[in-house]
Write a structure and sequence with these properties.
By secondary structure, the protein is mostly beta strands. It has one helix and four strands.
């Protein structure tokens, strides 16, 4: 399971909202997003923002081979049967 961090409470404006948890770890190599193509070859200070939509390179849909939704947070752990990390 990847490491998780939580944002400090001063970043949460409405205290009734649940704390945001951010998944850390390596993304699955099959996870794709438009930002990967828009930012290719740009320096870190010149990155443009993608639209935040992700898809699986294996299925070419928003569902992975395990039939669960793909996203930046969902595809960062080896707990998914379809996860593929870098060798």
């Amino acid at each position: 399971m990847p490491e998780q961090i939580q944002l400090p409470s001063e970043y949460v404006k409405d205290t009734d909202l649940p704390q945001l948890t951010i998944e850390l770890g390596e993304r699955c190599t099959n996870l794709l997003c438009k930002g990967m193509y828009l930012n290719y070859g740009l320096s870190e200070d010149k990155h443009v923002t993608g639209d935040g939509n992700f898809w699986c390179g294996k299925t070419q849909t928003v569902l992975g081979p395990d039939r669960n939704f793909v996203s930046d947070g969902n595809c960062r752990h080896t707990g998914r049967s379809c996860y593929e990390g870098r060798d």
